[in-house]
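ping. complex inputs:
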Amino acid sequence: MRDTPLSNCEKRFLLKAIEEKKRLDGRQTYDYRNIKITFGTDYGCCIVELGKTRVLCQVTSELVPPKDSRPTEGIVFFNLELSPMASPAFEPNRQSELLVLLNRQLERCLRNSKCIDTESLCVVSGEKVWQIRVDVHVLNHDGNLMDGASIAAISALSHFRRPDVAIQGRDVTVFSPEERDPIPLSIYHMPICVSFAFFLQGSYLLVDPCEREERVKDGLLVIAMNKHQEICSIQSSGGIMLLKDQVLRCSKIASVKVSEITQLINKALENDKRIRKEGGKFGFAESMPKERITTLKRDEAPVEMTDVKETANDIVNRTETSTEAVPSPVLVAAGTAHVGEGIVNSWGLDEDEEDEPQTEDRKTDEVMVISDSEEDEVVILNEEAKKSKKNRK
Amino acid sequence: MAVEMRLPALHKHVSLTTSQPHRDDKHLVVPGDVITSDTGFMRGHGTYMDEDRLTASVAGQVERVNKLICVKPLKTRYNGEVGDVVVGRITEVQQKRWKVETNSRLDSVLLLSSVNLPGGELRRRSTQDELAMRDYLQEGDLISAEVQSIFSDGALSLHTRSLKYGKLGQGVLVLVSPSLVKRQKTHFHNLPCGASVILGNNGYVWLYPTPETQDEEAGGFYTSMEPVSVSDREVISRLRNCLLALATHKVLLYDTSVLYCYEAALPHKIKDILKPETMEEIVLETRQRLVEHEG
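pong. complex structure:
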């Protein structure tokens, strides 16, 4: 099912906001969304959340015969899938342009950069090598799938452990994880893609575009870099003309972002390692906050507070002066007080109010016996009757 | 920017269901529910036969007409009928037609031969007209049209062959569920509060300022770009919030209900209408007035 098209006024609004250096979610031009990396119980399973974009990556290994042209190298196979779970615009089993683009960029970023040592994956030269298969599934599409996929892929590869093997001549024994600890892959460096979206013929750029911003973009520049400031791949799509200094500026921004993201990935990996060693609980279930009474918890929304003071003063000055304050209570006797002045008694009685406290005091001392003979009319409604009753007693 | 904050308070939920005598007869089903095991019924839309038992395939209300049982879904894409008025957005300009998005399963089709071109009705469509299609309707434009026929795959064929249909100019579009728009004789209303509304059967409602003079020779493609006065804008904003309030509480939309809701919302500030408590109040008042009006 095709996505509902963006209306003209939404497009105009987004472009106008970008011109004024404002973004829909309040970020700055070069800000990334919140990145959250969680690992599963199996080695090699990782979910990355880039704002609302969620990408799952699973790494598996298998012993296969090697390629004829490279008998001493292992094989790394990448596969990215877009299912209708990510967005209603994706149709199942449809080879769309976006899918091909993402797959190619992921391969270029991770395979051509030679970040994984394929020689170490060889078991028996020419006969058996490890095939590492990286499956990336997009769980939710809220923009910038490329970055999310690359972070997920490299995190999962760094987290993955392959089974240990022992070679006795031509015999190969593969040990299960219970027999011998699995071995991590040897990864030289972590290439990470950083996406830049260009708007209005290349005059404005945004880092990490969200889905709405992606719909109105003119072109996209993806730079894959590692923390040693080595560019692994650059791809520019959309047909926009970019100036030399624009590309250089983007690469500088990318190096800053990549070092931050690499730190984040390393921290997540260390956390996971520590928890596993200590014997604590790990996996996806533990990373989700448990359901509590505070189910109405929401993410913090940034609020612009630059002119709050002036506006508040404005409002205070503009409002009318409040009515007179209520007078403080006046203590009449212990246990009785009155606040303010009441209105005139409208019961139409001749008794003064001063008699009331006295009668009340007397009432509390005596126990009023209400006779149940039918002769007396027991009407305890007004002062006169009470007084007459007391006189009778 | 001043921000309004409210503490979460337990506000009493006012039961808005009016006591109608036939309320308890509604037979609601979810997909998979067995409607009847009797084999004497014919199955209609929204049902399927599962081992001799008639089961529902959508979530909705069961309707029975003599021997025909069908399920009318509560939330669905728009299913067009011939003669419906729809409001749609142009998504593509193709060779001799435009593709219009109308909240249905497939994009609707507006053929070049089904539009009014300036210069007379019975003009033959030349190749020049084809090349100039984009001058009339571009991607992203909103139009009002009528359903002329339905293709075999379910796509609708639209036409704008009357002066009241055509490209829409300045106004506000509100998206509601198609099942909330009541079928009436006319869907174009000039409300006495100072705005006009087109209640599209596909759930797209268009609010616009009432034009002073009805242009006769415009042919439906001329859109006035004159600035709209502030009072008109306020009326339209209030109407839009009222429509959202009615849609949230699942009230059928037609000119009377919209008007009553507008009058009930007059004492409130326009942005206050969107608060849940105010919405409930206004809809309650509207429902009461509608019940009095009928009874």
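The interface with chain B takes residues 1-2, 4-5, 7-8, 11, 296, 303-305, 307-308, 311-312, 315 of chain A (CB under 8 Å).
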